[in-house]
Amino acid sequence: MGILSGKDVFKVFFVGTILIMSVTRAGALGLSPEPPASVERVKKAADVIVALMDNPDAEIPEALLRKAAAIAIFPGVIKAAYGIGGQYGEGIVMARQGGARWSDPFFVTLVGGSVGWQIGVQKADIVLVFVGGSRIRDIAEGKITLGADISVTAGPVGRRAEVSTDLGLEEEIYSYSQSKGLFAGVSLSGASIRVDGDANSAFYGESGITVDDILNPDRDDGTEAVQKLKTILAGLVGVSI
C-alpha cells in the first residue's frame, strides 16, 4: 500500500472531523436518528384507535371487536385527484392469536377503488375489522379486492349497534372511516389490499421477511410502538397482554 500524500491525509482528516462534529452536535441537541416511516405508521395507527376509543358514541361496538379475527388500520388515506377516482393509503394489519393476544403488525397498502367520500373530504383514516380469519391468508398470498374477493360493508357504530351485533355478524369485513374527528361507517368497493414488503423489511430489519414470519405466534416484537398498539387493542376487548 502506498503512502498517503499530504493532500490525501488532509481529505481523510477533514471528512472524519465533519462526521465527528455532526454526531457530537446531534448528541448535544438531544437529537436522535429519524425513525423509519414504518415506525411512524404504527404510531399513527395507534392514534387512530385512540381517537376511536375517546368517542363512546362513535366507537366500533365491543361485540364486533370480540368477533374480530384481524384489524387493518390505514391512517390518512388520500383521495385521488378529481376525475381519476380511487385512493391510496398505507397501513398495517394485526391478527388475533388464539383469542388472547394480537400479532405483530405486517404492513400493507390500500389502492384504488371507491370509498364514497363525503363532500369536501380529501383525507380520512380507515379501519377494517375482519370477522373471517381466512382472508388474512389471501392478503399474505398477494392481494385481495374488497367487494370482489371478499364482502365488505359499513360497520355498525356506537352504543345502539350493540343490540344489532348480538343478532350475529355475517359479513367478512366491517369498514369505518374518520375525518376531522368524525367516525362513521363507510362502503368500500374495488380497493385492493396488498402486502408492503419493503415496509416489512425496513421495520423488522429482515430482508425478505414474510407475513407468515411476522404472524408466527412465538414472535413478539419489543418495539415500544408495537407494544403500545397491542395494549390498546387488547383493552378494547378486555384482554390483557
Short description:
By secondary structure, the chain is α+β, with helices and mostly antiparallel strands. It has 2 domains: 1-33; 37-236, no CATH class. It has 8 helices and 10 strands.
Key traits:
alpha+beta, 241 residues, 2 domains, single chain, globular, 10-stranded mixed beta sheet
Characterization of the model:
- By secondary structure, the chain is an alpha+beta fold.
- The chain folds into two domains: 1-33; 37-236, no CATH class.
- The protein contains eight helices and ten strands.
- Strands 1, 2, 3, 4, 5, 6, 7, 8, 9 and 10 form a ten-stranded mixed β-sheet that branches.
- A hairpin with a 3-residue loop joins β2 and β3.
- α2 (37-53) packs parallel to α8.
- The longest helix has 23 residues, at 6-28.
- The chain is globular and about 40 Å long.
- The N and C termini lie far apart (59 Å).
- The model is unreliable at 6-34 (pLDDT under 50).
How would the global form be characterised? globular
Radius of gyration: 22 Å
**Structural class per helix/strand content?**
alpha+beta
What's the structural domain tally?
Answer: 2
The ordered string of helix (H) and strand (E) elements is: HHHEEEEEHEEHEEEHHH
Q: Could you give the count of β-strands?
A: 10
The average pLDDT score comes to: 74
SS strand fraction: 15-25%
Distance N to C terminus: 59 Å
Share in helix: 25-40%
